[in-house]
Amino acid sequence: MGSIRGGALPRLPRRQARAPLRREQLPGAQPGDGPPRSRAEPWPGWPRRRAATHPRADGHDVDHDRRPVPALPAGVHPRHPPGRWRPGRPHGDRQPRGARRVPDRLRSGRGGARVVPAERLSRAAAVPELIEVERYRRLAEGVLGRPIGAVTVDPLAAVPHAVDDVADRLVGRSAVAARRIGKLLLCDLDDGGTLGLRFGMTGRLLLDGVAGLDDLQYGSNREEPRWDRFRLDLLDGGSLVVRDPRRLGRVELDPDEGRLGPDAATVGVDALTRVLAGSTTALKARLLDQGRLAGLGNLLADEVCWRSRLDPARPAGTLDRREVAALARTIRTTVAELDRRGGSHLGDLQAARDGRTACPRCGGAVLRRRIGGRTTISCATEQR
User: CA angle 181-182-184, nearest 5°?
Assistant: First the structure.
């Protein structure tokens, strides 16, 4: 072993054992109090703390402080409340993949679905879903035929492409068409290539300084040029900019359009049947799968399930032909109607999501839970 520069290591002092406090050293002790009665209550007036509980034969639990605690109902294990799946539960009683069980009694906790008063629901935010990206597509038509003079792109937004590759591919080119598949905006270039733009949760598109959307509630709507993640400077002095505070958007060269399912705005019965057939995944989780059906986000998925009176946790493959046809029609009409209203956050169910009302249709309780990892709002009475 090597030597320690400067000589031997210094000897550390031996740790001294701590003597227990004497009675008179305890704070608040008075002469003549006598020895401590217990660790929980050394003398009268000591602030008592909750101690471990012990079962008692008369149906109550009691702790060291002798305060009665109501016992759980018969057959209920404290670590396995009703409604939570646990090992040994029959397979037929499990919930579909992507759904969390609705408990038999109300309970709080991070993972528990529960019926809550509408006024306690948190405010939901509008994000770029199909309707918002369609507005971006209409805005992007203003860039057609205008040559690109310079490109600025955030390295994170360009992944997996290199920044120089993006610039080399776009400078000198011009867009000839603006398309959309789901939430993906596509600009066809005059050399046969395609520029794809994804906006994440907080991305906004601006053409010549004018934003396609003014209000995205998940992100700041301040006009901060430092949030520009992608910028095309046009030779005529204009610009096309993606402004994204949270850097969740992406720029893609020649994106694989085959990865996406049919567009939700035009989906038909046959296409939707193929999307849902044989799936044990929760209906909402299936609708959110962009590789199966492109365009629906959290708000639109909740809205179409509510309008169709379908439980979003129901296994997708259990819908019959009549229900699939009705769902396809509801998806198309909902997208068209909310587009006219001005955004995916303007659905009829949004008031219940914001906590202002109960179910807008029946006035019943609103059910809030997580399905497919997303907060889900539904009617506890009508959606089956």
Answer: 65
User: Is the backbone peptide bond immediately before 160 cis, with ω within 30 degrees of 0?
Assistant: yes
Whether the predicted model's global pTM rises above the 0.70 cut:
no
Per-residue pLDDT at 323 exceeds 70: yes
- Whether the per-residue pLDDT at 328 is higher than 70: the answer is yes
pLDDT surpasses 60 at 24: no
Mean pLDDT along residues 17-33: 57
Confidence at residue 48, expressed as pLDDT on a 0 to 100 scale:
52
Contacts of residue 173, Cβ cutoff 8 Å, sequence gap at least 6: 147, 148, 189, 190, 191, 193
Q: Which of 183, 292, 307, 314 is catalytic?
A: 183
Which helix (H) or strand (E) segment holds residue 292: the answer is none
Which letter does DSSP use for residue 378 in this model? E
Task: Read off the pLDDT of residues 273-293 as tens digits, 9 standing for 90 and up.
Answer: 999 999 999 999 999 999 999
The catalytically annotated residue of 96, 129, 137, 198 is 129
Can 374 be counted among the known catalytic residues?
Answer: yes
**Residue 132 is among the residues annotated as catalytic for this protein:** no
Contact 356, 348 (CB under 8 A): no
Domains and CATH numbers, the chain: 130-258 (3.20.190.10), 261-379 (1.10.8.50)
For residue 237, the 8-state DSSP code is: S
Q: State what percent of residues in the chain have pLDDT above 90.
A: 54
Among the listed residues 382, 351, 380, 356, the one whose alpha carbon sits nearest the alpha carbon of residue 367 = 380
Selecting among 42, 128, 255, 315, the annotated active-site residue is: 128
Phi and psi dihedrals of 30, rounded to 5?
A: -120, 150
Catalytic, 183? Answer: yes
332 catalytic? Reply is no
Q: Average pLDDT over the chain, rounded to whole?
A: 78
Rounded-to-integer distance, Cα 302 and Cα 318, Å? 18
What's the CA gap between 294 and 326, in Å, rounded? 18
∠ CA(185), CA(214), CA(374), 5° rounding? 65
Residue 67: CB atoms within 10 A of its CB come to 12
